[in-house]
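Q: My labmate handed me this sequence with no annotations at all. I'd like to see what the chain might look like in three dimensions before we decide whether it's worth expressing. Could you predict it?
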Amino acid sequence: MGGDADLTGVAGRSSLYLAASELHIRDVFLARLAAEGFEGDITPQVSARLVGATDNSIYQRLPLAVIYPRTTEDLNRAVRAAEDGSLTLAMRGGGTGTNGQSLTAGIVVDVARYLDRILDFDPDTGHVTVEPGVVLARLNAFLKPHGYFFPPTVSTATRATIGGMIATDASGKGSRIYGRTSDYIETMDVVLSDGSNLHVEKLASDALEHKKTGSDLSARVYREVYRVVTEQADEIRRVFPDMNRGLTGYNLENVLLENGQFSLARLLAGSEGTLALTKRVVLRVRKLPKYRQLLVVRYASFDSTLRDVQTILPANPSAVEVLDDRVLEKASQDIVWQSLESVLGARSEQPVRGMSFVEFVGDDEGHLHQQMQEAVTLLESSPYEVIDYKPVSDQAIINQLWTLREKSVGLLGRPDGRKQGVAFVEDTAVPPEALADYVSEFRGILDGYGLSYGMFGHADVGCLHVRPFLDMLSEHDRALIRPISDAVANLTRRHGGLLWGEHGRGYRGEFSPLFFGETLFAELCRIKEVFDPRDIFNRGKLAPVGVKYPVDRIDGIPFKGQFDEQISSDLRDDFSLSVSCNGNGACYNREPDMAMCPSYKATKDRLQSPKGRATLLRSWARLNSLPDTASDKSALPELTAELKASLDTCLSCKACATQCPIRVDIPSMRSKFLDLYFLKHRRPVRDYLVYWLEPLLKVGRQMPTLANILMQNPISTMFLKKLGLVDLPKISPARLPKITQVSTEWLEQAGNNDRSVVLIQDSFTGSFDGGVIESAYTLLKSLGMDPRVTSVWDNGKARHVRGFRKGFSATARKTLKQLKNIARHGVPVISLDAATGLMFEQEYRDVAGSEAIPTVLSLEAFLKRQITKGIIPSNAVKPDTAALTIISHCTEQAVRPGSAEDWTVILRHLGVQADAGKAGCCGMAGLFGHEKEHADLSASIFAQNWASKAEGNILATGFSCRCQTKRLAGRRPAHPVEILVSHLQLKIEKAVSTQ
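A: Here is what I predict for the chain of 995 residues:
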């Protein structure tokens, strides 16, 4: 069982449609699960199965169902329901495996939705008790106020779960001094294959003897593992490499500890869920280091970057991370790079072909300074091609640099034509002193196939991440997986290293005998058979039980590209970003201050994430492309309905268009899907009201009092509620005299006046929050500008969101024409509202095609520019005034991450104490928060991301944010321009009357 298409040459299910025998197996399991009293969610729907069929690897394997245990006892229930061995269970955490670690043809047991509780923390012992679905970044956020952290630092920390880290024995940055996940496990509670519980802890010899006594499964496990590690001690010493990166899955080397204790946890860590299911774990955590310094070193070649690691290591850094020129090229296109240009982007006479981040941490600032100086001295005498280096002590910049490094894995997945970096020889490791020579030969293998590639990794411990660029929709490129994997495996072995240095084996289990040797591999199979005699745990991975279910081969599982290849060219063009989604899972983050993805964070439902939606879109496009005779075509109606439901909860905040490393723009594809969907389905009446919203608002602005009476009375409220609209805001347009508006006469002379500026009135702010426009005009006038405002321009945002593509294009063309008529005079044009102002950089580009769109500045960008030019004089900040916190609109945060900081510069310059803040989506997003069926979700998103912020003294740049906060928190935060008008004691009436 496995796969979801009619594919030949691979082991797996032939289609989305389940055969009668498979349906029977699933139905029996689900019935047993219900009889056991399973309390969690069960999702056998095609959409849930498709989303559970992929990870961050090249594979796609369709499970029978996905289940979400609500309690740890649900894990026992699932195992008992599967005890007969008719199907397999695969535990899933963050779903970011690079080699299909949690993919299965059986049942996916997803612990990230509910089993994500931090159960206990004892700061005296430094022990924390967690469930397997706890996300690493959330754990560290919990520990930080106590001065602790969990040291293994993986690049996917915002979505990687502790259970998944245990499964692969994850390490990451800093492992040279901090080690691996298994180094921090104190105790574990697991479920064995008979459904019984086992408490795992370090055992002295007498306690071990007691555990070995008896006939139950746990006793047999202890006896067998002890036998192997004692009888094969010499072979284990001979085979296991003396490296920071150990031979995981199964780690026989460290079961017997140096102090003589026996640690079964060392074996379970790295076993990828093939031996037992983790229920809870007690981890040892460490004190946060007090100080941190970073050295950024640039090189003229990547070979020099690698070789110079040995030069730097005597300074004893905590980590040395390297990036090659391909990663740097991709990183320079990322939104984070903009704020780091002063550190990373300085020009040099030589091209930068490699870069190192050298980090030092500790509690003694003086000693840290000495280490940095020693590293600098070593670099200055380096025989390699060092271009320059820059020490960094600003903690915010250091955090941003590591964020950029963490994005590397995703950035290399960004498409380059039809090719993108893919993971399959992803995490090799060799002794650090052999790394440069090893990489030279590795590059020779890839160069021999004419491939481009990106390389980055933990050079201080010899671990390298490599992403060759392949077109996985091409049979030719897919065929390269086998020879490259074989060549790299042999190369790694020859250099005394490992094919899997960090991310586990997954579907690379066939290479186990090469690295363990036949003797130890046979012992691994015996251990697996004792733990799991019916092979119910993650079947086909690591070690087989008998011959019925052999270990899967790297080219024996369906590749995702084989399905995508079947998508017709027109649909592939329209939904290409869904095909490009590589499953890096950045959208699965739970960070409350990150904009992406509000619907996923509020629901923990992977179907309501950008990755989930992308998976459904590409699968829907494929089914639409198949001939009517194809068996999978029968699943199209069900999938279409489930895709539509998934897209209905998308807030169209556009965060995924920039914060996703692949830039998987779900709102744009949603608009295209809805356009096609409603060719065959009837639209709700509300959609047509939304279509005509902006023309209707024009009428309302002419008679706002009457319009509000008509729209806000009990009868109209009840009527609108029946249409699905609730709690609509009152119309409140700007009331500026005609002389303040743009005129032809003014434009003709404005180009010669460097104080001239045009302020766009967007239809949202101009209709519902006109006071902000009045304040902006007043502020600009008082600062010596010669401002004018446009009439209220329609933007078509609502039409775009609803999939009215033709209607949106008509609005966009009209708006672009209005913009060009102004911009041709050389006058700066600025926008107040981020959500609509950014449309000139995003949605309108699809309409404009190759035609250039004049620049529309944000108000803060314009004001900051004027300050930099010396045009706007400064005011002293009043002492002892409370600082205001500026929170940008979530779309603005994603596209213009420096927006809030720009506002702080402006406010402080003009005498207002302010700081930049962050928050996720407020939950409003245009009409989303006013739609009856989404009201609860909207409120949940606000409670999660904004409610605590709203209790403080905040300013909000987004109209939606101000509206939502007033609606749900009872008070409206001001826009920064309103505060400035108040602070400068300006009177709007007076400013207007001086025209």
